[in-house]
Specification:
2 copies of one chain form a homodimer.
Chain A (H helix, E strand, L loop, with lengths): L3 H9 L10 E2 L5 E2 L8 E2 L2 H16 L3 H4 L5 H9 L10 E3 L3 H19 L5 E5 L4 H14 L4 E5 L5 H4 L4 E7 L11 H10 L3 E5 L18 E4 L14 E4 L43 H16 L2 H22 L6 E2 L11 E5 L3 H10 L2 E2 L1 E3 L3 E5 L7 H16 L5 H5 L6
Parallel strand pairs in A: 2-13, 5-6, 5-7, 7-8, 8-9
Antiparallel strand pairs in A: 1-3, 4-10, 9-10, 11-12, 12-15, 14-15
Helix pairs in contact in A: 1-12, 2-9, 4-9, 5-6, 10-12
Chain lengths: 416, 416
């Protein structure tokens, strides 16, 4: 695809092309930020109309049973499960990724307190998404039991970090900034060899890349439904536990939704059997219901075709930037090897922030991540090859003509 | 109001009567369960249409700034504040009541670990809403620092329970089952005399009864927006901290939304100043946005007029049951004294569950709470005196004719 015409042809031959019609895409926009907030499924307005007007408005309290609100976390979790390499009864949709990380980490620590009680190290990566590190820090600070956080970085490899003093390894499968993807099976095996329990953050994986939690013998996983799964802004997150740990794990955010009989109003907490004990309080039903619209679409797509197109899109992006923006100080921070690449492509540029603002102003919406990183999310269900051509064309134009605002760059504002 | 005609007249003279037009009420229903799930504000469909179609669909990621999604927890918290006797900057809307209880309890414990480090008792009530107890149990179990839960019940009074070994007192202001309301100022004063920090659960108070957190010198409070505030099913909860503790409290669910600069992507957690450090992860924006529809209405009403009507409705309910259902084994469990009564009325009856099912089948929707309790929520913004008359009329008919199903009673199903 050396020309726009070749990209157009590729779009015509794309077996996933028709999925685009299932989403609303604002006119004049090339959306390369579906890894931050996915787009709107066309079915979501009608669904919200039903949930609000019928289930809430007409059904009122009866909808907890009649509209199966109470079962939503498990029912949607069961639907999501195949996209994670998980089975029914292993996933619930609930709360936020940060909170689910806390639950999974607490459950993993508790298992280790019984199995290998002397271990007090939790390993993660320095460039993990910050909330993962913050949740670990909060837990360590709260427990005051001598736990410490050890970070993998340029000085410390994974192999060095995961020693016999380590209780838990908490990693993002795909890095939010670089797009680097871990080999989940190999990394989990390495951890298990050392007696270490794994917690995987799948925020940038679910719906984006093939995930095989059971095949990888992973222990716990959490992730996000509002990125590649198009669940809506801040839609509730998910949490998975391996069948090995079911009915044996424990977590401290033990609210009534995780009780084995929530309406018995017992004084003592008794965890529900299975994954449901990861639930805590009453869930945001309108936001949660909308997740199904995106899931309906994701489940129609062949995940291997999605992966193939994702790699084709990112290969195209990388090659076009190489060919057409070679004169500019753009440094690719995403791995070139397919096996190590998620579904976004990132570049460093000294004026990364201002360039992204210029791109957004021209309708090419990616996002910026400190430090200096331009990040482009590639979502095969609604992006085509021509979109990539046009996005790089706009990037080249902005770079060639230096039409970014250096003042803006130095007055960075809050952006998500 | 000894007759239905008198009730009709009272409705005509009711200064709050016009509020009913702002809600959708299903035809043929008398809804006495607004203390479990409030009704649908008519404005909510249009609001959801905007949030989903415009803010999500058109604005996409830009709406975090352009539609002020990122500021919603604080902006809605500021709007809610006057209903709690709180000021701007003291409240955020976020997560669930259970999770916010955990945060408030952890913050209170941390303050006491510095002030009175030997104290290891947390006091609550045996008949508190179970999730409050479960969250305390989860925290105690997790900390493994010798904390214990002491429960107030028939054997142990509040005065006996709150001794010099107590760190935190966690109470529901209005009991979910009986409707008993604590004197917040007096109870807080009693706790403070003993050096005890208070956490108030306002689930059945916010929007239902006048609350004066600052006037009562309370320390922490949490509560619910989906009951009397009509925020929608499972809409996010709220949390408040006294200005005395602002910038001094700490909580372990320390996700990136509570960071002082979430987009700096720093490795170390640094709490935001003020109430925002109670935030954790990305919030369910559609559900959260709808809260404003209910708040808009609640803020138009004079809270003293709401209270006056609430008491008039519950007085009427109690008197009519007394007069018209005297032959039946109904035991009032709600206090007769106005100062000790929230905004619902509850009765025990040996066949409580089955009677409630029969009431619901006839369109009088209250709810059932173990053990044997028929619970009737009284929401002055959309209930009239005639509704109470008609509800008791239906109750009397069911009781007189014994038209409940004893088989159903003994095969109780899950109900919220």
């Amino acid at each position: 695809m050396q020309t726009r015409a070749a990209c157009l042809l590729a779009d015509q031959q794309d077996p996933l092309a028709s999925f685009k019609d299932l989403f609303f895409l604002p006119p004049g926009v090339i959306y390369l930020d579906g890894n931050s907030l996915g787009v709107l499924p066309k079915s979501a307005q009608a669904r919200s109309h039903d949930v609000i007007g019928q289930e809430w408005g007409q059904g009122l309290i009866r909808s907890w049973n009649d509209a199966n609100w109470f079962d939503l976390p498990g029912r949607l979790g069961d639907r999501l499960a195949p996209l994670l390499g998980a089975a029914k009864g292993e996933v619930v949709i609930t709360d936020t990724t940060s909170l689910n990380l806390f639950k999974a980490l607490a459950a993993a620590i508790r298992i280790q307190q019984k199995a290998l009680p002397q271990r007090r190290v939790i390993v993660s990566e320095r460039d993990n998404f910050p909330t993962d590190l913050y949740m670990i820090q909060g837990m360590i600070d709260f427990l005051q039991q001598g736990y410490e956080l050890r970070l993998i970085d340029e000085q410390t490899s994974l192999e060095q970090a995961v020693g016999e003093d380590v209780a838990v390894l908490l990693l993002s499968h795909v890095n939010y900034r670089t797009g680097y993807m871990h080999d989940m099976a190999a990394t989990t095996a390495l951890a298990h060899q050392q007696g270490v329990i794994t917690v995987w953050d799948l925020a940038h994986s679910a719906g984006a890349v093939p995930v095989d939690l059971n095949g990888s013998h992973a222990d716990f996983a959490v992730g996000c439904t509002y990125k590649y799964l198009n669940g809506g802004p801040g839609s509730p997150a998910f949490i998975w536990v391996s069948p090995r740990h079911q009915d044996q794990f424990w977590q401290p955010l033990s609210g009534w939704w995780g009780h084995q009989n929530p309406f018995a109003m017992a004084t003592e907490y008794q965890p529900a059997s299975g994954i449901r004990r990861f639930l805590c309080g009453t869930q945001a039903i309108v936001s949660m219901s909308l997740i199904e619209c995106g899931l309906d679409i994701a489940l129609q797509a062949d995940m291997l075709a999605v992966r193939e197109k994702s790699l084709a899109l990112s290969d195209l992006f990388i090659r076009l930037v190489e060919e057409r923006c070679a004169d500019h100080p753009l440094t690719l921070v995403t791995p070139r090897e397919h096996a190590s690449r998620g579904s976004h492509v990132s570049y460093r540029h000294p004026y990364g922030f201002a360039i992204m603002q210029a791109l957004i102003a021209k309708g090419v919406i990616g996002d910026y991540r400190e430090p200096e990183v331009l990040r482009f999310g590639l979502t095969p269900l609604y992006l085509g090859y021509t979109d990539i051509w046009d996005a790089v064309d706009t990037l080249k134009d902005i770079l060639d003509r230096k039409i970014w605002n250096t003042k803006t760059h130095h007055q960075r504002v809050v952006v998500t």
